[in-house]
Amino acid sequence: MSRQLKLVILVNVLLCGLFVVCNFVFGYFANLPSIHAQWNPLWLTYYNFDYLAQMGGEIVAPIPNFSFYFFWISIAVNLYFIIKLGRNKESS
Hints:
92 residues, 3-stranded antiparallel beta sheet
């Protein structure tokens, strides 16, 4: 197996692993009993309904949607490697 192909596979495995881990973490926090999550491609917003009921306010925690970012980064990296490997095959 060529060195370039090993690099492609390693980068893809790392990015896909980060994507899966972020989804598990976000899913865990979204499934807590008093938490509601609102999805946006750039942000995830978590609402704490227990605090809203007890104190009359609400805790809103917007965080970056890293899993969505990792998905698009992995797509871009795959396209880069496809183009680079395609050029190497044409020049050989």
